[in-house]
Amino acid sequence: MSHLQTAARAGLRGKSLTMATLNPQVKAVEYAVRGPIVMKAGDLEREMQQGVKQPFAEVIRANIGDAHAMGQQPITFLRQVVALCCFPELMHSPAFPEDAKQRARRVLQDCGGHSVGSYSASQGVDCIRRDVADYITRRDRGVPSDWSDVYLTTGASDGIMSILKLLVSGQGPSRTGVMIPIPQYPLYSAAISELEAVQVNYYLDEANCWALDTEELQRAHRAAKQHCQPRVLCIINPGNPTGQVQSKKCIEEVLHFAHEENLFVMADEVYQDNVYSADCRFHSFKKVLFEMGPEYFNSVELVSFHSTSKGYTGECGFRGGYMEVLNMDPQVKAQLVKLLSVRLCPPVSGQAAMDVIVNPPREHEPSYAQFTKEKNTVLDSLAHKARLTEQILNSVPGIKCNPVQGAMYAFPQIYIPPAASLSLAPDMFYCLKLLEETGICVVPGSGFGQRQGTYHFRMTILPSPDKLQILLQKLKEFHLHFLEEYSQAEPQMSSSNPEQPSHKSKQPD
């Protein structure tokens, strides 16, 4: 009697949900930021807690932009307002400043039952949406923002996913193509896989500080039209994982291209406060679009995203965010509200955190001095660490790192000798060895996309300056040892300049 027959006679049955019956789109999803290298890092941490000796004292997680996990302290005013919203009895405490209490009262006034424990409207708490619109108007120096175009979201990711759900349709050659930058943040490729859309890659120019070239956009668009209908253009500015900040001229060219090709533009601007290079400045896609004139501003469909998770606050756990939707068909807008209603509402405490970011203390208010000091301390430290990371990485033979102009990451190109890996992708092998020998956890460049024959990794600049210095020094020593060990099988490095990564290494067959 077979095992199945025995199980059937015993009244047992197999699982309804197995890998064979699992939604194939879920199996297709990959998310490198929390992928196998990160899982291995967790295993090593657990082993160390159980007394297993490793060649390092701790695992340094440089794989994800989680500022507080890396030791960044919360902004006092933000936590005060959220605390007051969550526990209004604190309104009677003299330890909380009056401007924090005023903001908390205003938020609670718009909450059902005057409690953040109630559901909000699906679009978010009205007064917070109004504050977001006022913030956008100030940020963009008077370009008007209508609060009815603002939707509060569960982080930026929730908004991005919701908009993509609206955009994906068609079958075969008419299936929606979504243009994304390479390298990209893996949320986009994961969402495209989940929705069975068509991923259309356009490559950023690494030789020109990861610039966005409209000729490359045109090439990718032409090629994609052979097998899908490109309808969406995703932009990340400042860039993740590449850290570049786009110029106003570049943004104008991109928006002109989107206008000509009738593309829906998704502008991921969650790092808009994270600009470090003195010769760079953040320009919002909306402001540039407005300055291009009514022909563009009244026609190009644009959604921009922001989040509590980045900037100077780094409040990832609150899952707060917003999106501003421009020029969307009114009937489609109604469908968006319906779609958002299915998930009821974003976390109201996260909405309150978002409100502090868009409505910070003003000069005449009691919390202004401390808030400004804390904000500048965070941003100045990030700027210092951006320069330090670029400087040390570029001092290592076989590593080349573009300037970290903004965001929170470096994406250096690394030379990997062809003999370094037989069974794994070379950059995966490199990052695994780095983790096992030094405890440093970074993400292979293949998880973000990279040009064929080049290898990279992404690391955050979030560790404290002292810990970042240690990380970079250990990384330098590891890389030199790695080159020495795996180049022995090669007569010489394939790059004519050993100071630069090779562009000739090939991916394994």
Automatic annotation (TrEMBL):
GO terms for biological process: L-alanine catabolic process. The keyword Transferase applies. Residues 100-475 form the Aminotransferase class I/classII large domain. Pfam families: Aminotran_1_2. Keywords: Aminotransferase, Pyridoxal phosphate, Transferase. GO terms for molecular function: L-alanine:2-oxoglutarate aminotransferase activity; pyridoxal phosphate binding. Its cofactor is pyridoxal 5'-phosphate. Residues 489-500 have a biased composition (Polar residues). Pathway: Amino-acid degradation; L-alanine degradation via transaminase pathway; pyruvate from L-alanine: step 1/1. Its EC number is 2.6.1.2. One of its GO terms (cellular component) is cytoplasm. InterPro entries: ALAT1/2-like, Aminotransferase_I/II_large, PyrdxlP-dep_Trfase, PyrdxlP-dep_Trfase_major, PyrdxlP-dep_Trfase_small. It catalyses: L-alanine + 2-oxoglutarate = pyruvate + L-glutamate. Residues 489-509 are annotated as: Disordered. It comes from the Eukaryota. Belongs to the class-I pyridoxal-phosphate-dependent aminotransferase family. Alanine aminotransferase subfamily. Catalyzes the reversible transamination between alanine and 2-oxoglutarate to form pyruvate and glutamate. Homodimer. This is alanine transaminase. It comes from Takifugu rubripes (Japanese pufferfish). The lineage of its organism: Eukaryota, Metazoa, Chordata, Craniata, Vertebrata.
